[in-house]
Amino acid sequence: MKIAVIGTGYVGLVTGTCFAEVGVDVTCVDIDQKKIDNLKKGILPIYEPGLDEMVARNVQKNRLHFSTSLQESIADAEVAFIAVGTPPDEDGSADLKYVLAVAAGVGQHMKRPMVVVTKSTVPVSTAEKVRKAVQAELDKRGENMNYFVASNPEFLKEGAAIDDFMKPDRIVVGTDSPEAEDIMRRLYKPFLLNGHPIIFMDIPSAEMTKYAANAMLATKISFMNDVANLYEIMGADVNMVRKGIGSDGRIGPKFIYPGVGYGGSCFPKDVKALIKTAKENNYNMRILNAVEEVNEAQKEVLFNKVRTHFNNNLKGKTFALWGLSFKPKTDDMREAPSLVIIEKLLKAGASVVAYDPVAMHEAQRMLGDTISYTTDMYETLNNSDALLIVTEWPEFRSPDFNEIGKRLNTKVIFDGRNIFDLKDMKAIGFDYYCIGIKTGN
């Protein structure tokens, strides 16, 4: 089977590469000539563990191709995946201009019956807009060509995207035609051999499934952060409470770790889009409004602890920051809590020296020379007044505390991910602040 994946961002590149891995002939399409040229050289626009090796392997096997020509790429394709960005508008709604531009392009150039699939996260009714955009171009051409639309939302976790695609919890496909269902079932057959379920449903339900899933996970995070702040006031230990509730099978242990808030490309955007969709339908998403409000406030919690410790006087002080990406195993800094913390520190007159295992280039692109960077986690500590841990990268979990104590001006750590133990830190002479535990420092 031949398919085209339009868009070589996170979703498009992972999707195309993983399909190629199981033998599908895939062409990934993008209008960015430089990005396509780099991909042909093996230079990826994103960081995802294992993806560069998989891309290289499938290019070498001649199963994965890269092109800027939509016309050539869809000429023989049975399926065209739309995997371009849907950035939030100022009002929080998903911007569909790129999705609909691709749909129009498919209508202009398609030469055979095919399934046009929205892989991007899109609000309910987008598939109908895609259908109309394709049909409008066919009408201009005077073509009466058969085609189908479908929704196939992605459920990829950055840092674990390959496993998520190759070993999915579920595959969701929304379609309104038996022909499209048959084609999509054949396409996904290699992933079904190991018992991974494929769930067919109507298109609006498929479109809503992705938003509902991300909204639920964001709700768990904000709920835990909200109660963690209360536990800290009351003197309870949030880590003990987390274990107590996480053992309940109805709740589970995932997404109930307190921290400095969620970020990334999905949760913030999708929560905003779902709230906006509700407003457009005269409904108020009260829980999700609170989820978003809690998350925005949570991004300031670590800074507030820093400010309180230093008696509201941060001017002239230097802070070491470990972690810039919104979570480990990715270089994604979209909506990252680190950006809020850095902004607050700089505004208070402080300086920031930062280190991240993979997000340094992205940080320099976004922040420029407003902060300093080092290529070694311990170098950030030199002449710094405190250490802030913002992303829970594995290499931060067992550091050399003697080295930290020697390099810092004062032995103070603000842990936004609760990776250390309060009693242990006190025993070795550190002032230690974390989330959801009353420190008493």
How does this structure look, described?
The protein is 44% helix and 14% strand. With 441 residues, it is of the alpha/beta class. The strands form two sheets. It has an eight-stranded mixed β-sheet, with helices on both faces. A six-stranded parallel β-sheet has the order 11-10-9-12-13-14. The protein is elongated, with a radius of gyration of 24 Å. α1 packs across α3 (51-60), α9 (203-234) crosses α12 and α11 runs antiparallel to α12 (286-298). β9, α14 and β10 (351-355) form a beta-alpha-beta unit. The chain has helices at 10-21, 33-40, 51-60, 70-73, 97-109, 126-141, 161-166, 178-192, 203-234, 238-246, 267-280, 286-298, 301-309, 337-347, 360-367, 401-407, 422-427, and strands at 2-6, 25-29, 64-67, 79-82, 114-118, 147-151, 171-175, 198-201, 318-322, 351-355, 372-373, 386-389, 412-415, 431-433. The N and C termini lie far apart (63 Å). It is built from 17 helices and 14 strands.
Oligomeric grouping of the chains: single chain
Give the helix/strand class: alpha/beta
The portion of residues forming beta strands comes to: 5-15%
Tell me the major beta sheet: 8 strands, mixed
Mean pLDDT figure: 94
The number of E-state strands comes to 14
Between the first and last Cα atoms, what is the distance in angstroms? Answer: 63 Å
Low-pLDDT windows of residues: none
The neighbouring-strand order within the major sheet is 3-2-1-4-5-6-7-8
Shape: elongated
Query: What share of the residues lie within helices?
Result: 40-55%
What gyration radius follows from the Cα positions, in whole Å? 24 Å
Number of helices: 17
